[in-house]
Amino acid sequence: MTLGRRAFLVAGPALAAVASFSSAHAEENGLPSTDPRMGPRVLGSPDAKVQVDEWFSLTCSHCAHFAQTIFPQIKTNLIDTGKIRYRYHDFPLDQVALLAAMLARSLPADRYAPFVDDLLRTQDQWAFAQNIDPIQELKKRAVLAGISAAEFDKINADNALREAIVNRQDRDGAFLQIQGTPYFRINDVPAPDVVSSYDAFAKAVAKAS
């Protein structure tokens, strides 16, 4: 999904690389540098020779397609086998995606990836289905993930977290010249062709090994 104007992302609660890319600057965003919500979100062995970084938006249809059709093979064949370390970067392109990212980062680190995966796989059901309120659908899915209704409202009102995510996104977007999502880097080298198929992804990983 290509980028559009995002000034509205920090307007308030959602309604109805730098060496380690941008993980080290939470204190600049109104959050302490030790805030665990802004820590790395990764899958795979820290000893893997290849690191894959993905920037994604939870309301991006291209991101959802990748998650549904290609990522399961990546998880089985490359992450679980220790061949790659896979790092997630939130890059929300609208208010709904921003709130979804805030919810994901408010979960314990080991529950971030399953929640993101669920939202991407079911995107058509909670984000774009007819006659639904995506915020209320997010609330339902958050409850299933262990976030109570009261906690949901508190997260939605957390402007420090909201701004931290958006400010990190701005830095990554400017530094890496990200023009759309999903955006990938393999061992810190842009990898624009990996979204076409699992074979293309695996070939790029093999080349970087």
Automatic annotation (TrEMBL):
UniProt KW keywords: Disulfide bond, Oxidoreductase, Redox-active center, Signal
Can you give the residue ranges of the Thioredoxin-like fold domain? 40-191
Going by the entry's taxonomy, the superkingdom of the source organism is recorded as Bacteria
Question: Which Gene Ontology MF annotations are present?
Answer: oxidoreductase activity
Recorded hits in InterPro entries, A to Z, give:
TAT_signal, Thioredoxin-like_fold, Thioredoxin-like_sf
Signal peptide region: 1-26
Report if keyword Lyase is assigned: no
User: Which residues lie in coiled coils?
Assistant: none
Entries under Pfam families matching the protein: Thioredoxin_4
Give the protein family. Answer: Belongs to the thioredoxin family. DsbA subfamily.
Name of the protein described by the UniProt record? Thioredoxin-like fold domain-containing protein
Q: Which organism is it from?
A: Gluconobacter cerinus
